[in-house]
Amino acid sequence: MNLDNRHPAPRPKVKCLLVDDLAENLHALSALLADDEVELLQARSGTEALEILLVHEVALALIDVQMPEMDGFQLAEMMRGVQRTRDVPIIFVTAGSSDRHRQFQGYESGAVDFLFKPIEPHILKSKAEVFFQLWRQKQQLAWELQERTNSLRIQEMFTAVLSHDLRGPLSAIQLSAKILEKRADEDAQVIGGRIARSAKWMGRMIEDLLDVTRVRLGHGIPITRAPVDLASLVQGVIQERQVLNPDRQVELQTEGKLQGAWDADRLVQVASNLIGNALRHGTGNAVTVKLDGRRSDRVVMSVLNEGNIPAELLPSIFDPFRRGQRQSNRTEGLGLGLYIVQQVVQAHGGTIQVSSEPGQPTRFDVSLPRE
Question: Residue 271's domain spans which residues?
Answer without folding.
Answer: 226-369
